[in-house]
Amino acid sequence: MKPIKHIYYWIAVLIPIFILSACSEDFLERPPQDSIVDASFYKTDDQVLAATALLYSKVWFDYNDKASYNLGDFRAGTAFSAYNDRGNVLFNTTGNTPENGAAWRSFFIVVGQSNLAINNINQFAGAAVSPTIKKMAIAEARFIRALAYRFLVMNWGAVPVIEDNLKLLSDTTVTRNTPESVWKFITSEMRLAADDLPETPIRTGRVTKWSAEGMLARFYLSRSGVESNGSGQRNQAFLDSAKYYAERVITKSGASLMKNYSDLFLFPYDNNPESLFSLQWVYSPGAYGTQNTSPAYLAYSSDIANGDGWGGDKSATWWMISQYDGIKTTATGMQGRTLDQRLKATFMLPGASYPEITQTIPGGEQKLIFPFTGTDNNFVSIKKYITGKAKDVGGLSASQNYGNDTYMMRLAEMYLIYAEAVLGNNASTADATALAYFNKVHTRAGLPAVEDPLTFDAIFKERTLEFAMEGMAWYDLVSLHYYNPAKAYAILNAQDRGLFFTAPDQFPNPTSWTFTKTSWATNERTIIANSGNFLLPIPSAELSQAPNLQKPAVDYYKK
């Protein structure tokens, strides 16, 4: 039988549920074991919670592996790969681009497993399962499914909404649903999840009411532009809802900003006070798919990794570096130093030191000092999510096997959502609370407070700097594109994504850097974004085996 790689396979088959041999409170810290869950399984609270545990990790594996940064950052222009992943870097992603298919597949695996969890818990939960746990577990699955659909609708536009996998076995008429109706569906689902999730996590790493309300703030901010038809005006009721939920999370959740930005990515940072939802990876020898593999592809060299470290050609873009305050344009390029602490925590510049990471050097080891090669394509390499060798993390890492979590939502986003929602359709009018919330994020980075007027451009820039290399930047552009496509295209088309040379004024411990575009690399520096290539194409394998995906989209609620 030849491999089947299309949507109907991934969401119709009974993908194994990954459960634990024993369900103690530290279950998210240990690798799960594979097992098919049958009707005899859902008999206790621990078993029900184990059945939803995989929704926090393995189902997201194909997305987190390489697709997250390919779509979220390379496509958005915050970072680039000089020799690999060029389809996303050059904004000509096709139906055959590997990360396009991996992301689609992963999101529909998430949907399928969430559907199965809801169905199985409703059908098989025994009398010993408490109503509270049953309600919470179903809410977890609704939360995860809604988030997967948020990624689907923002990347591909019209996509099929599926709530019951098994119906697809006999239904060949499933088609895509309109973006407007997909957004209505996922907002409704997240509201239901918020009603049924607890205010404090039942176990470490589990989503809460505040995780769901944070997602509602995010959803409503994006949804406010969905029906504007590019008019530039967003739905005020949805902006008000985004403000409402963001403020509730800020004032009621008990979450707090980490004091230092760099601490967000220093081992062990998992499930810290700022995290509202993270994918829960574990160092898991022998249980492939439950670990975080992305650091293997982002670390610039095996000198700081566990036999992997294949990110030597990955770098911040010229455009990204230019966003940091203090980096000034000169006649020949850019030069300067920034007070923004996020640069050092996100990207590595020559001469910068990272004492938490061990570096192999000729004849021994030292605390990492990012090297200066002196060549004309010295990269500004990726720092975020790079935690070093096994010895740097208590032995809990190996090649392509890291245990650090992936942020999916942080409290900092709530402050910026509130500010943007208040500003809304008023080009430069925001209240004092919005400005204060904006400055909580801004000053945490070591920058002086911003005074009135607060503008959309300032908020957009702040989000870019705050969340670079967290797979977020692309979705900010999609949200903008909903109501102002011309501005989204202008941002993308003004970016320089080509090679450049970064020279420190001294090595180590530089006080400034000079950035110069690589003279021989004159091609493929810019892209052309437009209405014809903005959204991702549905993967070719899906279209060839599921032709209904090419039919016009219909309203999910009027089928």
Automatic annotation (TrEMBL):
Q: Where does the record place it? A: Cell outer membrane
| The keyword DNA repair is annotated on this UniProt entry | no
| InterPro entries reported in the protein's UniProt record | SusD-like_N (IPR033985), SusD_RagB_dom (IPR012944), TPR-like_helical_dom_sf (IPR011990)
Segments forming domain RagB/SusD: 273-551
User: Which key words tag this protein in UniProt?
Assistant: Cell outer membrane, Membrane, Signal
- Source species, domain of life: Bacteria
Residues in a coiled coil are: none
Identify the main location: membrane
Give the SusD-like N-terminal domain ranges: 97-221
Protein family per UniProt: Belongs to the SusD family.
Its name, as the record gives it, is RagB/SusD family nutrient uptake outer membrane protein
Species source reads: Dyadobacter subterraneus
Classification from the root reads: Bacteria, Pseudomonadati, Bacteroidota, Cytophagia, Cytophagales
